[in-house]
Design goal:
Blueprint: H1 2-18, H2 21-27, H3 32-76, E1 80-82, E2 99-106, H4 109-121, E3 126-130, E4 136-143, H5 146-156, E5 167-170
Parallel strand pairs: 1-5
Antiparallel strand pairs: 2-4, 2-5, 3-4
Length: 172
């Protein structure tokens, strides 16, 4: 009986002096210090993920603000932006880019080809775009970036071949 009482006293002293960590170590379980480190690491990971989401949202907000600024700039330039479906749709031409600056629209293909040759001599890469309504347009400065197409429109407006009613074709 004395032996059992002695073991109980020793065990209670061990528990009170070392806490549960001694038993956790014996059982191969993480100690309270290791659990606290894991908790802190989990909190830091969650904070990093949250910050990454916030950063991603800020990037999207900036892109949206930039796009709105470009659209406002286009409006001030009195640049018309049209989708092919609003003007009859494309005939057979498959367009590789989202935006084209249209510097001429002709019912006779030969006139469009003549303008295409002229803009190519001026150093622009041009594309002949055919519509179902019979019009052939000359598109230049093709791009997938709205900011680039806006800058190109400003530059093209200064060219001698550029008409006053230049517009942007949006291929969606």
């Amino acid at each position: 009986m004395k032996k059992l009482l002695f073991i109980c006293i020793v065990m209670s002293l061990l528990v009170s002096l070392t806490g549960c960590d001694a038993f956790r170590r014996l059982a191969g379980r993480p100690t309270s210090e290791e659990l606290e480190q894991r908790r802190i690491a989990l909190i830091e990971q969650r904070e990093a993920e949250h910050q990454a989401r916030i950063d991603s949202l800020r990037i999207v907000e900036k892109q949206l603000a930039d796009s709105l600024a470009v659209l406002d700039s286009l409006k001030q330039l009195e640049g018309t932006v049209l989708n092919p479906t609003k003007i009859g749709g494309l005939y057979t031409t498959k367009l590789d880019y989202k935006y084209y600056i249209v510097v001429g629209a002709f019912q006779q293909r030969s006139f469009a080809e003549r303008l295409l040759t002229r803009v190519q001599k001026e150093g622009y890469v041009g594309t002949l775009i055919s519509f179902r309504n019979g019009y052939n347009v000359v598109g230049i400065c093709q791009s997938d970036d709205l900011n680039k197409i806006n800058a190109s429109l400003r530059k093209v407006r200064e060219e001698p071949f550029c008409p006053s009613d230049v517009w942007i074709l949006v291929n969606e």
